[in-house]
Predict the structure.
Amino acid sequence: MTLASNLGFPRIGRRRELKTALEKFWSGEISAAELEATAGALRTRHWKLQGGLGISHIPSGEFALYDHVLDTACMLGAIPPGYGWSEGPVSLATYFALARGTSAAAEAAAGIAPGLPAMEMTKWFDTNYHYLVPRLSAGQRFTLTSNRPLAQFREAMALNMRTRPVLLGPVSFLLLSKTTDGSDPLDLLEALLPVYAQILSELAEGGAAWVQMDEPVLALDLTDKAKQAFGRAYRTLAATPKPDILLASYFGPLGDNLATAADLPVAGLHVDLVRGAAELDAVLEAVPAERWLSLGVVDGRNVWRTDLRAALGTLRRVASVRGTRRLMVAPSCSLLHVPVDVVQETGLDPEVKGWLAFATQKLEEVALLARGLDQGEAAIAAQLAASDAAVRSRQASPRVHRPEVSDRLAGVTPAMQQRASAYARRREAQQAKLRLPLFPTTTIGSFPQTAAVRQARSALTRNDITQATYDVTIEGWIDDAVRWQEQLGLDVLVHGEFERNDMVKYFGEQLSGYAFTQHGWVQSYGSRCVAPPVIWGDVSRPAPMTVRWSAYAQSRTARPMKGMLTGPVTMLQWSFVRDDIPRSVACRQIALAIRDEVADLEAAGIAVIQVDEPAFREGLPLRHADWAAYLEWAVACFRLSTCSVRDDTSIHTHMCYSEFNDIMPAIADMDADAISIETTRSRMELLDAFVPRKDGSTAG
C-alpha cells in the first residue's frame, strides 16, 4: 500500500494566529503560557487536519515559534555567551533574545546582557523564508537542552495521533552555520553526533516508528569532505537505537550527491521530483529496492494545482520498476512556503482560483495520488476529470496569453539594455545636475507603517473616507517626512512610501496579470508574514504607478527626491510565479513594465530613481553550474528596466539579507550608479567585497 506523506505544514495558522500571539507576547499583552497555548492549539488543529485529509505520515516537531534552525541550535545548546543560558531548557527570554536582539530592562531581569545583537538572518536556500544562522566556534560544546521533537511527538500521541518527528539533519545544521573563528563547522561533527544519537534514542523509547531527517544541503554543491561527513554521520547514527530514518532532500535534484544519499544506511529517501524530475531514472537505479522511496510530486513551493494525470503517470512509472510496497507520495518539500487554504479566498477571481492549490489542497492531491496508484484511475475518476479541466482552462485562456505583451517582448534589442554612456561620463552629468557632496547621505526608502498609516488605508478600503481625504492625509505625512529629513541634513530624500502596503503588492495591484489573496499568507521570518501575489498571466503596466506621489514629494523640496520602485527580479521572486513559461520570460515582462515607470518618473522631473533588488541573490540557483545563466538574464532584466534614462538621471539599487560577496561582479554589471547593501546583521562581512586586491581592483 502506497503511503500518503507530508514533510511539513505552515506554522502561522489560517488567520496568522501565531503572528498575533507572538506580537501580543512581545508587547506584554499575553503571558508565555498563553503563547504556548496558542501554539499547541495550532499544532493540534494542523495534525487533525492532515489526518482528516488522509495523510498517513504526519510531521511533528517542525513547528517553531520563530524559526526551526534557531530551535535546533537551542536544542543542541549552541547558544553564544551572554544570552542568559548555561544549561538545561532554553527560556523564551533567551530564545527571543537570539532571534531579535536585546535592549535593556526585560532581558536584564532574565540575566541577559543588554545590547546584544540578534543572530544573523539569511535566506533559506533560494526561498523567501529567512533562517537564523547558528554561531559556532572550534571546540563547541553540544548538549541536549530538551528533546523538542519528542515533546511534540508525545503531544500528538495524547491526541491518539502517531506522527513522524522531523529533525534538521546534523550535516545540514553544520553547513548552514557559521563559525566565529574561521574554523570549519564540519570539524564539529564528532562532537555533535552523540546529541543526535540521544535524540533518536529517546524518540525510539517514546514510541516513534519513523523520524524525518531533513538534509537539504544535498541539493547543493558539496565538497568531498561534506560527502564523507554524511557517511560518518549516518553510519554512526545507524549504530544507535532509533526509529526508521527517512532522509529528506529537497529544493532541487541530488545530482552528483545521489550516490552519497543512496549509500547511506537509512530506511528511506525523499526526493524532489518537481525540481528534480529529470533524474528519476537515476534515482530508480541508485536507490536499493529494499529502501523506502518518498516521491515529491506535488509542488510544495508554488500554488498551482497539480496535473494529477501527469503526476499519476510518474508514480505508475516508478511502481512498474519497484512496485508500491515501499512507496510514499509527498509534496516536494515542506508546505511552509505556501498558504494554508485556498477555500478562504472568497474574493479571488473564480477562474484563477480554480487553478490554485494551497497547503490543504496539496495534501488532498497527495492523498488522491496515493489512492489512485493503489486502486486505479476509476477510484479518483472525478478528481482526475476536474484536474484535466483546470489544466485545459489555463492553457487555453486568452486572459493568460496576450499577444501584445509577447510582441513587445520580441522587440527588445540589446541597445535597450545599455545606458547611453559609461559610468564616468554619467557621474559628471549627474554631479552637474544634483550637486551632491563627495559622500552624500540618504536613506533606503520606506518609513514605518504606523498604526495611523494602516488605519487610514483600512478606512479607505472600507469607504469610511474618500480618496480625496486619504490623499490629503498622505500628503501631510510626506510633508512631515520631507521637513525632518531636511532638518537632519540628508542630501537625497525619500517620500516615505506611506501610500504603499508592500513593496511588491503595491506594484502588482497596478499591473495586469497579477492576482492577490485575502489570506494567502506565508511566513518570511518570525512574526513577519507576507502574502505573495500570484502571477497568473502576461504582465504589463496599464498606467503610471508611483509618479503622482514622487512628483508631489519633489515639489516640496529643492533637494533631490528619489523615486522608489521594486525591481523586476524581486517582483518575480516574491511572487508565486507562473509555471507554464520560463521564469526569465516572466521577469522580462515585468522589466518592461518597470521600464515604463522609470521613463515616466524621469519625465516628471525625478532625477534619482532607486530600483530595489533585495531578492537578486535569492533567485540564484543552488548549483554553481547554473549561476551564469541566471545571472545573465537577471542582470539583463534590471538593465532593461533602467537603461532608458538620460546620463544625468541617477539609478540606484538596494539589496539586503543575503550573501552577496560571491556575485559582486554580476551586481557591478547591473550598471547602477549607486548601490546600497545591508551589512549590519552579517557583521559587516560584505565590506570585504570592496577591499582592493593586489591588482588594484575589487570583487565588484
Q: What stands out?
A: The chain is about 40% helix and 10% strand.
